[in-house]
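At this stage, I put together a protein sequence along with its fold in token form, as given directly below:
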Amino acid sequence: MTLKRTLPPIVVAAAMAIACGVTLRFFPHMSEIGDFEVVQVIGVDKKGDGVEVTLVADREEAPGGGKPGGTGMTGIMSFEAPTVFEAINEMNLYSDKRRHLGYVDFLLVGEDAARDDMAKYLDFFTRNHETRFSMVVFIVRGATAKQLIKETATANGRMTDALMSIDESAKMLSNSRMLRLIDVARMLGEPYAAAVVPTIIISDTDFAEIVGAETPGKALVPDGFAVLRGGRLAGYYDSRLARAYNILTDKAYTSPVSVRGENGEYTALELLQYDISFDTLWEAEDSTGIRYGVKLHASLMEQPGGENVFTDDGLQAIENGAAELIKRELEDAVAASQRLGCDAIEAGRRVRMKYPVRWEKIADRWGELFPRMDIRIEVTCVINRSYEMRERIGVQMAAAATGDAATPDNGGEGGIG
């Protein structure tokens, strides 16, 4: 009895390829991991009618060719070319390692490139098989990406650490946020709203000295958002308006506010929650106005002055002061958006969600309606707690010295506890 077997076609094809000596084209090329240099940050700038790409990679070798595990070094390389793809491939000619883009965490776009056409400079990264849609995108305000990298990066990888820390600072201040490439691509494709992308700047602030280690001459810090109309840079929300943008779009975390009390002394609050109500005014089939209602929930964090604020009037004065301060910021953010001629506060998204049938009738004209709309905002604030203490340190001692040891009234709607 003869056992007959049929070889799978893929095996036959592989054998023929080997016999013909075409293995390099038929099979994927093998590379050792040591042949790659892992890039963590990419900067893209407009350069004439082409681009300039700057890559940042941390190496294990110590400066001077030491053994792995030393202090490490940061490699920075820039190259100009007609396209991003060509620039990155040309860099490989001038290095002993091939650039690997699979671990890029940050993509920095220079101001001139953002003003030219944001989508043009992001196209390569949305197509490339190595890069990830989870990389975080920033626009460099007032400078090129190359300039920021050169002036803030150091041998100990300071720039990468600083970019990572923006996420935490954004949560504490609500003046920025991390935005992934996939989110930027979605915003650029939204026909009814502006794309709003976080910005970073070069700061001259001398904030630290580390003995025995290199520190950057300048620091990079978050500085609000860039507003893109039609995919091109139209203007900015600075740090103050950035908080307002985050509140209006439900992206705010916590935020500090210092408010003057009845006698003019400051009290520090932490805004912890933002309840937003929204409604639209209609005239026939058109939306003519928008009404926001914002309720702030805050905790009393610091009372450096000697004023006793824990009375109904004292707490009310602080709550009103915080509400007025935030209201001005929100109104300025709305005015800036209308002045730029684009919906940078995602008001259209709220209209679409609340009035889907009516929205279909005005969607194509939203860009014309929004700049002329009557948008009003009402803000209230409530202090919910003061943590460990109600009175400022020394208040009861001062009261005893004057013979007025009565406990201050702590009632009212503030609900302090």
About this structure: The chain is about 35% helix and 30% strand.
